[in-house]
Amino acid sequence: MVYNLAIIGFGTVGQGLARILVNKKDLLERNNNFKFKVVAISDIIKGTVIDQNGLNLAKFLQDVQKEGKISGIKKSDFSSVEIIENSAVNIVVETTWTNLETGEPGLTHIKKALALGKHVVTTNKGPIALAYNELSKIAKVHNAFLGFEGTVLSGTPAINLALRNLAGASVKTIRGILNSTTNYILTQMETGTTYRNALKRAQTLGYAEADPKMDVEAYDAAAKTTILANVVMNGNIKVTDVIRKGITDITVHDIRTANLKRKKIKLIAKVWRENGRIQGQVSPKALSSTDILANINGTLNALTYSTDLLNDVTVIGRGAGGIEAGYALLSDMLALNQKLIKNF
Amino acid sequence: MVYNLAIIGFGTVGQGLARILVNKKDLLERNNNFKFKVVAISDIIKGTVIDQNGLNLAKFLQDVQKEGKISGIKKSDFSSVEIIENSAVNIVVETTWTNLETGEPGLTHIKKALALGKHVVTTNKGPIALAYNELSKIAKVHNAFLGFEGTVLSGTPAINLALRNLAGASVKTIRGILNSTTNYILTQMETGTTYRNALKRAQTLGYAEADPKMDVEAYDAAAKTTILANVVMNGNIKVTDVIRKGITDITVHDIRTANLKRKKIKLIAKVWRENGRIQGQVSPKALSSTDILANINGTLNALTYSTDLLNDVTVIGRGAGGIEAGYALLSDMLALNQKLIKNF
To answer: Which residue of A has its CA nearest to B330?
Structure first.
């Protein structure tokens, strides 16, 4: 089987995937029995191209790097939705921007694709945080695959780890460091750097946006917490249900005071069940230095699933980056492929 | 589909699985679409029973706990191999003892089952460490599934994490703490306890055998290192190829000296490629206290895969225990089932 991919959104993540696909095409075919063509790329700024015979990805990556646009070949007037509807497409790669209020335009893209029985892989937190239960039902009805590994720890296995590797065990609580920007800032502050200077450094290094609110006020971590709550613990909570406190009030003094007690301040996400209801929280916590999460520094992320049969299982890895997020999309497609190919 | 399981070997691990299967039968059917009967149990000491309609597992667990034997129902004279050959059996659960020299009797059991196209799940390190490449070929030829998650890190995802979740990425090096007994002893020694006393405590707690050689002289970790080398990095090494040094020479003085330099002594397994060849080593190393592995204490195990696309991915969890190992077998069966059931 040859998969026909449409990449909707060609920013850092879409380009990260494209780069991997260019570099690993032969390896993926040989080692993973994964054959693909990219038949469409659609980006609201960079333009849209379609070629049912398969686009020359390497060329588009060059174009975009040089000119910020897809150029040099026949453009298409089709909208992203029309591309998704195109009968040649069987995997929709959704990597448009995250909107935690409406989920759009990703939500429409994903619904449309699943309703047509097309498989979807996405790193877009918006639609999954806002509408996982609904999307999951549409996927089930149309027997389509919905992969979203990259929404929580980027390419580091987190979602599929819970759904596949920990299947049959019951996850009782989840704790984690889910945001790289804030973990970088807090780690910098351990050395005496002020919050303001640590944030500036994070911005210079590209870890934080010009408007850092999504990260430092923990909206990003709250969205990821919602996803974990609904996907891994069968919750039905909204992003706004997550008790949320960011790191903007944390001072070097707070960190020093914690250190004197052999503690580290970390922005900790938590999901638990209370009176039969799933609850989520993100807030700064002073962790004992023997806590594994206390020793996760810089841009690393970590996630601990506390289970009935295995006690705690912790995974640690990078939680951001274009290649990492691109890999998350690939790993979802390979999970789909492992399911569809005949041999073990 | 209803799977018909034969459990070969009914020690701690086989009983751990049985306990989970008794407790979770309904949940596994409802949540994981996994339906099974245990049609045979065969143990060289405890006896053998067969019932094609499905054995009463709860009863056998009671029997074994009370009398150390399977009793009260018609015994069978069939050998373990004859049970594997029985046409009713389609999953062979191999949990006999580990023999790192011959792999027997597990090796014969697994070969026989795979050659008949039967699926195999095992926690038995011997056959996988000695003959993975051969077994993997037999499995491929007969399109049978060979699951062995529990051979490294017990139920904590390790093997399937590499083969499934990290598919498409390339693992460049592996480092880990793969043996619980030695990590417990070294952690005890951090508080000033002598090696001899720490070993005694480990024996009292059931973490170490009366003859602790397999653990403290790192044969167990070397077997796991071999498995990782051959399975995850496509090596073709023997257990005896692994450069091996145990912890019997480590003194409290060594540990104090390391601590003064902010280091921790851990028994570290490593797999890497050198001049195109895969190499394995297990030996005590003084790790910087900022190294994630330096902070893995007590009976916890950990494993870091260094990859091309994700940098380091680390998983931490329990590396031993009857329930944990039983869960490893279940997780392999659920991976098989996820592949065979039609829906996503």
So the answer is: A168
